[in-house]
Amino acid sequence: MKVFVTGGNGFIGSHIISTLLKQSHELTILSRKRPEHSLDGIETVVGDPLQPDTIKGKLNGCDAVINLIGIIREFRSKGITYERLHYDATVNLAKEAKNGGIKKWIQMSANGAKLGGAVSEYQSTKFRAEEFLKSSGFDLTIFRPSLVFGPPPEGKSEFCTQMLGIMKSSPLMPLFGDGRFLLQPVSVRDVATAFEKALHKNNDQSKIYHLGGRDRFSYREILDMIAKGAGISPRIKISLPYRLIRPFISLFGRLPFFPATVDQTDMLVEGNTLPETSFIETFGIEPVKFSPENLEYLRR
């Protein structure tokens, strides 16, 4: 199958592309600039989905779209916002896909995506993109992942490597609130497998799958497992009342050097568990367990 992939340069995207290539799919990757090196089985086209004229005709001949475009923080002065990247880019790509006769679309969304009552703009704009795609007539699969873990490519990071970086800088680990909110981690390998298998599944109507492992862990437990997987001693945890530190995060989170934004921390303390994990049975996946043994990539 010839697949058009957007947002494939990130942590999750790199694993999805690798899985697609192993299954002999032919890939066209959208990039804002020409890469220095090309890979067998990959054609790179240059374009920006926020500038519709630059993507005209570039989806022609493809059988499916996998849209992975997403940002975890905004830089409004540069025009990098959730609204533009999550919603506007999706709309522009979908219109061009329709012009190219593409019928299948697989969308990376977010657990907790909803309009009313969403904790963050990240979630609400992901939901608006979902709703637009549902009305566009695609054979549509939407994936809403929980916390994704796994070895990142060189130069990239993911949640566990970020937390490890904080741990290595201090014997103390600050917690938001009591740190007992629950998360349901999912392996990036299982995410990539689900995306590839969804290409072969035909939907009469749009389908939404929540991606997560079978187990739920508190934030405290996850930090201890990260430390054990990395081969370091667990850090002393310091609980900080979230309502008191949230204004500080809101102020400084707008600065590029600050490690977190208020959107990110709001979503974290809300917890990130799933209403269902039917993707496990639907796609025949045996989930990789979140455990210290499966976090040994943190030692490299």
Instruction: Give unreliable regions as ranges.
Output: none
The domain count comes to: 1
Specify Rg, calculated over alpha carbons. Answer: 19 Å
Major sheet details: 7 strands, parallel
What is the CATH architecture annotation?
3-Layer(aba) Sandwich
Q: What is the name of the CATH superfamily?
A: NAD(P)-binding Rossmann-like Domain
Cα-to-Cα separation, first versus last residue:
35 Å
- Average residue-wise pLDDT: 93
How are the strands ordered across the major sheet? 3-2-1-4-5-6-11
Order of helices and strands: EHEEEHEHEEHEEEHEEHEHHH
Oligomeric state of the chains present here: single chain
Counted beta strands: 13
Strand coverage percent: 15-25%
What class, by secondary structure content? alpha/beta
Can you describe what's shown?
With 300 residues, the chain is α/β, with parallel strands linked by helices. The chain has one domain (2-299): NAD(P)-binding Rossmann-like Domain (Rossmann fold), CATH 3.40.50. The chain has 9 helices and 13 strands. The strands form 4 sheets. Strands 3-2-1-4-5-6-11 form a 7-stranded parallel sheet, with helices on both faces. The chain has a two-stranded parallel sheet with strand order 7-10. Helix 3 links the parallel strand 5 (104-108) and strand 6 (139-145). Helix 1 packs across helix 5, helix 4 crosses helix 6 and helix 7 packs antiparallel against helix 8 (262-270).
Can you give me a brief rundown of this structure?
With 300 residues, the chain is α/β, with parallel strands linked by helices.
